[in-house]
Amino acid sequence: MRPLSPVETTGPRTTAAAPDSTPASLHRIDRLLVRERDRLLFLPVDEIDWIGTDRKYLRIHLGDRSVLMRGSLTALNRILDPGKFYRINRSVIINIERINELRREGRHFTVVLKDDTAWIWSPRYRYTLKRLLSAG
Amino acid sequence: MNYMPVHIGRRLVILEVESIDWIEADGNYAVIHQAGKTYTLRKSLRDLETRLDRWTFFRIGRSVILNRMRIKELRIGRWDHQVVLDNGKVFTWGRRYRQNLRRMLSLHPEGRARCAL
């Protein structure tokens, strides 16, 4: 990129960092937009531990706080990074970086997260487990 | 990572573009705030705006360009909205720049929230 000089204003303009045709969909989703009454919160997805359901809503757990959000896990699952967030059963999406251990219990696995919450990795969502295990 | 060379006085400083927090106009000068440091240069915001990535940096008012990655929350008002940065600083997203706000919210696929604006 050309230096931004106070004097020099002529010369060919390079199209370095500002091509304005970036389609929105190409941006990896890095922050989740959550509406909370009259506030819109931008939650960095890296800080999300897991997402659970709370009646008609979703509850996003980040560290020691949680945020209620309207929406569906299916829709969220579609936009979150599939390499990082895994749907493990009908009501939970987890961030795999927060997994402490994976325990085999009969037919299913139990996931223990770093905050000591335990969830069943449902046999119905075995295909996501396979995706995780084949990934690394 | 993108770098932007900037003439400041007699120095040529090479700024990491992504780590710019916000840019403020101060009379005929633009003040770039980056990680606690400030750089003053004689440039218009309009000029800077066209050089920065328009999907990262958003003009939110006549005198402020913001890096959207620094935004922690948005307080919705009737016309103007308050933007809170992760360092706690608050700006007003002026009503004249609400097209930019829509554009920024369009980056969020889950954005039912954008209907409210």
What's the quick description here?
The complex is a heterodimer of chains A (136) and B (117). By secondary structure, chain A is mainly β.
List the helices and strands and how they pair.
The complex is a heterodimer of chains A (136) and B (117).
Chain A: E1 31-36, E2 39-44, E3 50-54, E4 57-62, E5 65-70, H1 73-79, E6 85-89, E7 92-95, E8 99-105, E9 108-113, E10 118-121, H2 126-135
Antiparallel strand pairs in A: 1-2, 3-4, 3-7, 4-5, 6-7, 8-9, 9-10
Chain B: E1 3-8, E2 11-16, E3 20-26, E4 29-34, E5 37-41, H1 45-51, E6 57-61, E7 64-67, E8 71-75, E9 81-85, E10 90-93, H2 98-105
Antiparallel strand pairs in B: 1-2, 3-4, 3-7, 4-5, 6-7, 8-9, 9-10
Features:
heterodimer; A: 5-stranded antiparallel sheet; 3-stranded antiparallel sheet; 2 helices; globular; B: 117 residues; mainly beta; OB fold (Dihydrolipoamide Acetyltransferase, E2P)
What does this structure look like?
The complex is a heterodimer of chains A (136) and B (117). Chain A has 136 residues and is mainly beta. Chain A has a single domain (30-135), classed as OB fold (Dihydrolipoamide Acetyltransferase, E2P), CATH 2.40.50. Chain A contains two helices and ten strands, in the order E-E-E-E-E-H-E-E-E-E-E-H. Chain A has helices spanning 73-79, 126-135, and strands at residues 31-36, 39-44, 50-54, 57-62, 65-70, 85-89, 92-95, 99-105, 108-113, 118-121. In chain A, the strands form three sheets. In chain A, strands 5-4-3-7-6 form a five-stranded antiparallel beta sheet. A three-stranded antiparallel beta sheet of chain A has the order 8-9-10, with no helix packed on it. In chain A, a hairpin with a 2-residue loop joins strand 3 and strand 4. Chain B is mainly β and 117 residues long. Chain B has a single domain (3-111), classed as LytTr DNA-binding domain (OB fold (Dihydrolipoamide Acetyltransferase, E2P)). Chain B has two helices and ten strands. Chain B has helices at residues 45-51, 98-105; strands spanning 3-8, 11-16, 20-26, 29-34, 37-41, 57-61, 64-67, 71-75, 81-85, 90-93. In chain B, the strands form three sheets. In chain B, strands 5-4-3-7-6 form a five-stranded antiparallel beta sheet. The longest helix of chain B has 8 residues, at 98-105. The chains are: A mainly beta (136), B mainly beta (117). Chain A binds chain B through residues 1-6, 16-18, 20, 22, 24-25, 27, 29-35, 38-42, 70-71, 75-76, 78-79, and chain B through 2-7, 12, 17, 41-43, 47-48, 50-55, 69, 71-77, 105-113, 116. Strand 2 (39-44) of chain A pairs antiparallel with strand 8 (71-75) of chain B, so a sheet runs across the interface.
